[in-house]
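ok so heres the complex, two chains, lmk if somethin looks off
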Amino acid sequence: MEIISLTSENFESEVLQAETPVLVEFWAPWCIYCKRLAPVIGRLGELEDFIPIKTVNVDEQPELEERYDVRVIPTLMVFKNGEPGERLIAPLSQHQLETFVTDQLKEQTEEL
Amino acid sequence: MINKMYDTIIVGGGPAGYTAALYAARSGLAALVLEMLSPGGQMATTSQVDNYPGFEEGVDGFALAEKMQKGAERFGAESAFAEVTGLQLDGRIKTVRTTGGDYQTRTVILAMGASPRTLGLPEEQDLRGRGVSYCATCDGMFYRGKTVAVLGGGNTAAADALTLAKLCKKVYLVHRRDTLRADSVYEQPLLKAENIEFILNARVKSMLHDDNGVTGVAYEDKMTGEMHELTVDGIFVAVGRSPNTAPAEGLLELDKSGYIVAGEDTKTGIPGVYAAGDVRVKPLRQIITAAADGAVAAKAAEEYLSGLK
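and the predicted structre for the whole thing:
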C-alpha cells in the first residue's frame, strides 16, 4: 500500500474523514530514529491486513506539528473517527508498534 | 514453530550480527538474523561514522547497516523482524522463541548489542520523549535555542554537550564527580564553548516536570549537601550503556555489568553458542571489533557444526 504524505490541506480528508482507522507517523528527514523506523513502516505498509499508514513531515507541516503538540519525533498515533488516540514515541521494536496499533484499535472500538 | 532448521541463528542485526551472517552464509550455512527494529543497532544512530575503515569521507551509520544487511543477504542469509522472548540453548537442537514464532537451530550467535543506560529515577520512563532523551544527535534539533542539561561525565556526555552547544542557548553538563571521565580530546572544545556550564559534584535527585513534560533538574551538591534546581527544557541522559543480555540471563555466565563472559574466540559456556560484539566482555567496543567478533563467531559455529557430522 502506498504511504501517503499528509499536509494541512489533505489531513481532513485523508485522516479526519477517513472511513478506517489510520496510523499517522510524525517524522522529519533529519531525524535519525525516524530513519531507523522507516524500514518497519515500509514492511507494515505492505501487509494487507494492516491499517493505512500516513506520514507528516513536521519540517514542512509545522501547523500539524503544533495542532497535535508533537514535541519529539518519531511520534505515532492512531486516528479513528477524526480523533487521535494515545501517542507512541520512538518504538523500540516492530513488535511494540504492532502491539500498540492492535491495542489502540481495541480500545477505540470499546469506547464506541 | 517455524518449519525450518537453521545452522545458525544470529540474534541482533548490528555490525556483529550481519558480519556473522555474511561469513556463515558464505560458508554455506543456513543463517537467519533476528532483528527487532531495523539493521544497525547503535551504529544506526550515528549519522557520521569516521572510524570504520574504507570510507574516506566517513559514512552514515544507518546506510552502513543497510549495506551490511544486503551484503549478507546477497549470499543467502535471511532476516526476520521479531523480538526474542526466550532461548533454549542446551542440546544439539536449540530453540529461539520470538514474537514471530519459534525457530530451531543448531547454533546461536548472540549479538544483541547494548543500549543507553537509564538513570533509574522513578519519573524517568514517563518523561522519555517528553523532554528526556538518550540520543543528542537524534533529538538535539528539538531544542534549538533552548536550555538543556546533559547528565553524565564520560565521552558520550562530552560529545553530547558539544553537539547540543551548537544548537542550544545554554547547556548544563551535570556530573556527579569533581572531574569528567571523558577523553582529553574533549577538554579544550568543552572549555571553549561559551554556552556550556559545568555543574560538578552534583547528584541528580529528580527530573522536574509539569503536564507538558520536563521543566528542570533537581540535584544535591555533594560537597555542601544543599539542594539546587536548574530550569531546563530538555534532559539528555548520557550515563553509559548496558548490554541487551536479558534473554541470556540465567543461561550463560554474565559479568557484574551484565556482559556475556566469552573470550576472543566468542565461545560461551554452552557448546554451539557464541557471543559477538558489544554483548561480550571485551576491552574495546567499536563497529570494527563487533564486525570482527561476528566473523570469528561464524567460523566457530562452522567448526562446531562440522564436528557434529
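quick notes: Chain B is about 25% helix and 30% strand. thats all i got rn
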